[in-house]
Amino acid sequence: DEAGMVYFVLTYQETKLNDKYQATLTKIYKVEGLGWSVDITFDQVPIEMVFSKETSEISVKTKSSIGEMFVVVFNRDGKPVK
Questions:
Q1: CB 62 within 8 A of CB 45
Q2: Which of 25, 32, 51, 66 is the most buried (most CB within 10 A)?
Q3: Does residue 5 have a pLDDT over 70?
Q4: Do residues 46 and 62 touch, judged by C-beta distance below 8 A?
Q5: In whole angstroms, what separates CA 33 from the centre of its chain?
Q6: DSSP letter string over 24-53?
Q7: Contact 24, 38 (CB under 8 A)
Q8: Cα 63 to the chain's mean position, in Å?
Q9: pLDDT (tens digit per residue) in 7-34
Q10: Residue 61: what are its φ and ψ, rounded to 5°?
């Protein structure tokens, strides 16, 4: 966040497992430590992550091997928004 009190970390495997990219999205508070951590999968490689202070949602942009862009949105608890 802008105040530097909350951090989000996205780690992922660069090779597919069962035709998906395995990833972990983590929310870390500067003072309290780990907020939550969720294991997720993507069809494409993640290339960008953006936090919205208005909605507290995290958007992860992915890109396919042919250049198609997709966005997956997660709510403040790390659950995918449908």
A1: yes
A2: 25
A3: yes
A4: yes
A5: 18
A6: EEEEEETTTEEEEEEEEEESSEEEEEEEET
A7: yes
A8: 14
A9: 999 999 999 999 999 999 999 999 999 9
A10: -95, 135
